[in-house]
Amino acid sequence: MPLPDLHSTRERLRHGETSAADELGAAVAAAHSGSNTHVFLKTRFEASAAEAAQVAAAAPLAGLPVSIKDLFDFAGDVTTAGSLALVQAEPARIDAPSVARLRAAGGVVVGRTNMSEFAFSGVGVNPHYGTPPNPCDARTPRIPGGSSSGGAVSVATGASFIGLGSDTGGSIRIPAALCGIVGFKNTARLTPLEGAYPLSGTLDTVCAMTRSVRDAVLAHEIIAARKVVRVDTPLAGYRLAVATTQMLDGVDGTVARAFERTLRRLRDAGARIDEIPLWQIQDLGSIQSTGGFAAAESYAWHRQLLAREGSRYDPRVRLRIERGAAMKAYEYIELQRARSAWVREVGQALAGFDAVLSPTVPIVAPPIADLAPGGERDEAFFRVNALLLRNTSVVNMLDGCAISLPCHAADELPVGLMAWHGALHDDKILNLAIQIENLLTTTTTTT
């Protein structure tokens, strides 16, 4: 049985069927349960209870619990970004704007969530603080996806209604897909980056994970301080594309079945879906052949910290950051120019389409044990990391927006459907996603 989303909980609050205190108590119980092992790096349950008691019932978030990734400043806390290298840093003086907006809307922060160190991995493994197990499988501990790993698990298990995170190459959408929840990556410029440790200033996006698309709309409106223009266009009113270049390569059986089943249902509901090559995707390898934005820009930020605290970094993360040292200034400038030209070409190829549909990630969550540090498992880690980031990172390079929503059957491991487009198509993507979610939740799901 799916957990109630924020909207339905607010309705219950209005009808006196629950209270903010009751909901916070349930969230705290979930946070203390075995399903939230390694999820929170710091909790503030007593403070959040006092805050919830002061929130007006009419506030958008009504005193309900939210979690924040350990990437964001929270006044009085040290922001460690999931690393040991920053544990001695000065506490934040003020909240990051995104955190402040959630609190001003009536959200109570129950804690800071675990993450891939410095947000530099789509797997979600953290050797310093432990890896939160994916709640989708009670028998086999599986990866949660990263880098917003703890936030995804907190939402999926009932410890929070909104998990504030970041997305540089898929760090919201990957854990959302693997944990069976919703993750919306907005156009990067719409949300403030201040008060969050950077990975790549070019690609970083502040965004959130939720239990439903309508909750994603609300979370985005709060974090971006803007209203989504809502329309009720039926699925028959959308023209959709499926990109066949790379996006469907190496898809495992569970993902393939869920994706094809979803496309069939969308077509049966009247949606027009065309397969297109979108061959420009294959050019990303050559465009980034001298290194990508994340390596170069993270090295520029970490260079001095590495000199002082390099031994305290996750070796896998350090390796990826230090690759940025090799990029020359002219190569970085050429990368910027090549990206701009590529964005224009993809925009032209997508003209006339309302969105592109793809599997969010091509595989279901693998076991944590298969990717633990050491020996051949390091090779497996980097292989899986690249696979998890492959589809989602296309949208970041496009400076676009995307949403991942669950499309798996009840007896399957979670699978995410990604709907995406270029910059500032956010409202259309969200409106489409509401229609897709309504279809998938009202249609009997069979394997």
Overall description:
It is a single chain. The longest helix has 22 residues, at 376-397. Strands 1-3-2-4-6-5-10-11-9-7-8 form an 11-stranded mixed β-sheet, with helices on both faces. The model has no long low-confidence stretch (mean pLDDT 97). It is α/β, with parallel strands linked by helices and 447 residues long. It is globular and about 55 Å long. The chain contains 14 helices and 11 strands. Helix content is 39%, strand content 13%. It folds into 2 domains: 6-280 and 338-442, Amidase signature (AS) domain (Amidase signature (AS) enzymes, Alpha-Beta Complex), CATH 3.90.1300.10; 285-336, no CATH class. The two termini are 18 Å apart. Keywords: Hydrolase. It is an enzyme of class 3 (hydrolase). InterPro entries: Amidase, Amidase_CS, Amidase_dom, AS_sf. Residues 31-430 form the Amidase domain. One of its GO terms (molecular function) is amidase activity.
